[in-house]
Amino acid sequence: MSNSVYQINKGINQSIEFRGLKAQYIWYLGGGVIVLMILFAAMYIVGLPSFLCIGIIGISGTLLVLKIYKMSHKYGEFGMMKSLAKRQVPKAVKSQSRKIFMMHK
């Protein structure tokens, strides 16, 4: 009988990480790059000088990358969703009447 050698996938159920970006932040960065490319094309078609277009897109792209990396490190994989959900929870529930606490027979 021969022995079989199986490789074990130790990364199962872990979030995707690419160069420090975790989970959904990879998609945010990709979407931002696509938006910047469309913005560059629109500015170039309108007739702005190409060096001005490159400068604006370069600065915007740098700010985009810095902001997304900052959010990725601050919130992690699920932290941003948790903070957005926490904002929607009311701080207090007010009731003008005691009827909801009365038992009906």
Description of the molecule:
56% of the residues lie in helices and 4% in strands. By secondary structure, the chain is mainly α. A two-stranded antiparallel sheet has the order 1-2. A hairpin with a 2-residue loop joins strand 1 and strand 2. The protein is flat and about 75 Å long. The model has no long low-confidence stretch (mean pLDDT 85).
Shape descriptor reads flat
Report the total helices: 3
* Cα end-to-end separation: 76 Å
Strand order of the largest sheet: 1-2
Structural class: mainly alpha
Write a compact overview of the structure shown:
It contains three helices and two strands.
Could you give the topology of this structure?
Blueprint: E1 17-18, E2 21-22, H1 24-46, H2 50-75, H3 79-88
Antiparallel strand pairs: 1-2
Core attributes:
mainly alpha; transmembrane; 3 helices; two-stranded antiparallel sheet; DUF4133 domain-containing protein; transmembrane helix; membrane; DUF4133; 105 residues
